[in-house]
Amino acid sequence: AFQATKVVRESNTAIPEGHWMWADSAYPLEPWCISPFKRPRGGNLSRNQSVYNRYLSKVRVWIEHAFAALKGRFQSLRELRLKIWNKEDLYIAIYWVECCLVLHNMIIRFEE
Fold first, then answer.
1. By residue range, what is the domain housing residue 87?
2. What is the domain count for the chain?
3. Labelling 3: which of 20, 24, 25, 95 has CA 20 to 30 A away?
């Protein structure tokens, strides 16, 4: 399924030059897609690879906490009950999430 996405098919235009994305170990390693190191069969990771994987794991936890905070503040994000039948429906779902992100950031800023 990942190979059929626009990100893969059009990685040159979908991801700006000098940018990349983190993914979990199920995704292939590409110049623009960085995933954790996998332990070689019958071997071990180097110390640097283990440190990198540990750091990446911490970043993933931060991301999961951010998702939890958003879902806690905006209950509609827990289970977005929108049927996506066409491109317009997809855009409505995207706008819904974007609005929640904007409001979330505004709340954080105003609370400071």
1. 76-111
2. 1
3. 95
